Amino acid sequence: MSHSSPPTPAASEAAATRQGVLCGLAAYLIWGFFPLYFKAVKHVPPLEVVSHRIVWSMLLLALLVTVTRRWREIGAAVRRPRIILTLCGTTFLIAANWLIFIFAIERGEVLQSSLGYFMTPLVNVFLGFALLGERLRRWQIVSLVLAASGVLVLSFRVGQIPWIALVLAASFGLYGLLRKTVAVDSLVGLAIETLVAAPVAFVFLCWLGWGGKGAFLAGSLHDNLILPLAGVVTAVPLLWFTAAARRLRLATMGFLQYITPSIQFILAVWAFGERFTPTHLIAFGCIWGGLALYSWSAIVTSRRATAEGNSPRNE
User: Fold this and answer.
1) Is residue 14 part of a domain?
2) What does the alpha-carbon distance between residue 217 and residue 278 come to, in Å, rounded to a whole number?
3) Which residue, of 112, 210, 220, 276, is most buried by count of CB atoms within 10 Å of its CB?
4) Does 9 fall in a domain?
5) What DSSP assignment string belongs to 223-254?
């Protein structure tokens, strides 16, 4: 009678990486097509849509936690001050990101949201330097300079700072950084985040409904069906994202992050008919150039570390 030997550390890491890539692909693909969903509710104020995202996500996650019997883990996590404080911070960051993203879609600024998510990998590099003391390599510095040049070109030629793109990139970059430092499972962490925000969101929705200003249960079958779906389209990709973030190197996450803004870019220009001017081409060209240099630098560093027998998990 033969017994299978336990997986080696290398095999376990390879399996975790495969799972992370699949989770990341699923999350970024769904986020790429997000504008189609939020265009369907563009007549609903952004703050109301965000509140629905929070409340319905909380209900879905509470069900998942109950089915998987994870309430004890949540109780243990909330009793640890560092974890609960960090998750309160991530709750604020992701709620702000949602609000600005929905605001951008309703204003017809999907192109700018695409720019923001193209910038996110480079923002991750900057955050690693500014907050974690990571040393910037030469080509990373060049890529950051190129990205900053693109923002400056767009600011001077259009006449205003692309604040939507900057806020989206900064908030999501910080969210990913903080979530990577929290030693809790993706389901547990996201459940706590929604539980933190849900009371405020629920009170706000009740206030809207009491005053006759809410879209939900106000007579429109379309709104009554599509707004509760906000919980599914919000929670599922976030669960996959946090699962991927805990299994993959930052460099790998950076590559996968290109999927979302690429899809949004295509939707903005060819589906929604937003203007793509020569100024946009220069600005996006600078960002894309910075991303190309960043990617090349990450590949070279990863191969060098592998050849030296190291695991470059934070490159």
Assistant:
1) no
2) 45
3) 112
4) no
5) HHHHTTHHHHHHHHHHHHHHHHHTTS-HHHHH
pLDDT string in tens for the chain (315-residue length): 545 556 666 667 777 778 888 999 999 999 999 999 999 988 899 999 999 999 999 999 999 999 999 999 999 999 999 999 999 999 999 999 999 999 999 999 999 999 998 888 788 888 888 887 778 788 888 888 888 898 888 888 767 788 999 999 999 889 988 988 888 888 899 899 999 999 999 999 999 989 888 888 886 888 888 999 988 888 889 888 878 877 887 667 767 878 889 999 999 999 999 988 898 899 999 989 988 887 787 777 767 766 665 544 444
Please indicate, yes or no, if residue 312 is contained in any of the structural domains.
no
Of 269, 282, 255, 78, the residue nearest 162 (C-alpha): 282
**Beta-carbon count within 10 A of 26 CB:** 17
* Closest listed residue to residue 65, CA positions, set 157, 200, 190, 238: 190
Q: Which ranges constitute the DSSP H helices of the chain?
A: 9-32, 34-39, 46-67, 71-78, 81-106, 110-132, 138-158, 163-181, 186-210, 221-226, 229-245, 250-256, 259-266, 278-307
Domain span at residue 94?
A: 21-307
Q: Report the number of distinct structural domains present in the chain.
A: 1
Quote the CA–CA distance of 183 and 77 in Å, as a whole number.
Answer: 9
Residue 5 lies in a domain: no
CA distance 296 to 301: 9
